[in-house]
Amino acid sequence: MNAALLSRSKVYMLRALTTEEIVVLLRRSLPVLGVAASDETLEQIATAANGDARSAYNTLEVAASSGEITEQSVTDALGRKVLLYDKTGEEHYNLISALHKSVRSSDPDAALYWLARMLESGEDRMYIARRVVRMAIEDIGLADPRALEQCMAMQQCVHFLGMPEGDLAIAQAVIYLSVAPKSDASYRALGEVTQEVQAGRAEPVPMHLRNAPTRAMKAWGYCSGYQHAHQFEDAVNQMECLPESLAGHRWYHPTDRGLEKRIRERLDEIRALREKVKS
After folding, report:
1. Residue partners of 55: CB distance under 8 A and separation at least 6
2. Would you say 121 and 90 are in contact if contact means Cβ atoms under 8 Å apart?
3. Burial of 22 (0-12, 13-18, 19+ CB in 10 A)
4. Distance (Å, rounded) from C-alpha 265 to C-alpha 270?
């Protein structure tokens, strides 16, 4: 529904019923069915319903179909617990959001819980794999470059093994990401430079960086002034690779976490060497 229609509508937020509320509803229905049940039995049915009163009513009715409610009839009626999960609705996005934010918060136990909820609900394994790969590049980044390698190996394992063996690969990747050092420096850098590209002028490529496959291009100055890095000590030259109007801009700011701390030190070293070459 678009914003114009929403502004003219009254919106209600629905919530799942609590176990206690469902027990009350079930107790009220017992006289209608002509059966009796203990509070423990009603609570068992209510817990399995996951907030859905209709599901609880159906279970109770099936359990009472033999004329009495027993532990065995309830077990048979419940069968395998069906978790509340709408693959195209809000709960789908709530669960993947909870998984992602638990990984980002370095909480492997919470991450495993939300992962298990998705697995038990029948979520498409390749969807989970794609989202876990995204976590590796969005929240771990260059603080631990192996995180992406681990996740791509997980994706191949899931594709190769299928269910249920592949689920362990997903769990392993989720644990790895949860305990890995975190950095969103690459994510932020790309976002900032993209804003610059979208908002700024499309600057021409500097002449010294242009390709010169023909004599005419060379005569026009294409590639003139290019400094081949390997001809300089430490393979560091003084050549500016950004357009003149953007010279000196920095978008990537590595953190001091994990491998990115070493990357930051290496960048400082490169910049110092560049200044040395200039002088």
Report:
1. 48, 49, 82
2. no
3. buried
4. 9
Give the count of domains, the chain: 3
Q: Which residue has the tokens 């093994």?
A: 161
Q: Which amino acid is located at 193 in the chain?
A: V
Rounded CA-CA distance 133/124 in Å is 15
Query: For 32-62, what is each residue's pLDDT tens digit?
Result: 888 888 888 888 888 888 788 888 888 888 8
CA distances to 120, 207, 239 from 271, in Å: 52, 23, 12
Burial of 39 (0-12, 13-18, 19+ CB in 10 A): exposed
For residue 106, report the phi and psi dihedrals to the nearest 5 degrees.
Answer: 60, 45
Q: Give the whole-angstrom CA distance, residue 40 versus residue 9.
A: 42
The answer as to whether 106 is a domain residue is yes
Residue range 133-144, pLDDT digits in tens: 999 999 999 999
**Is residue 95 located within the same domain as residue 168?**
yes
Q: How far is CA 251 from the centre of its chain?
A: 24
> Does residue 2 lie within any of the structural domains?
no
Q: Any idea which residue has 């993947």 for tokens?
A: 96
Full-model pTM: 0.67
Domain-embedded: residue 56: yes
Whether residue 115 lies inside any domain: the answer is: yes
Residue 165 sits in which domain range? Answer: 90-179
**H helix count then E strand count, the chain:** 13, 0
User: Are 66 and 97 within one domain?
Assistant: no
**Token pair 């079930």 in the structure block, residue:** 26
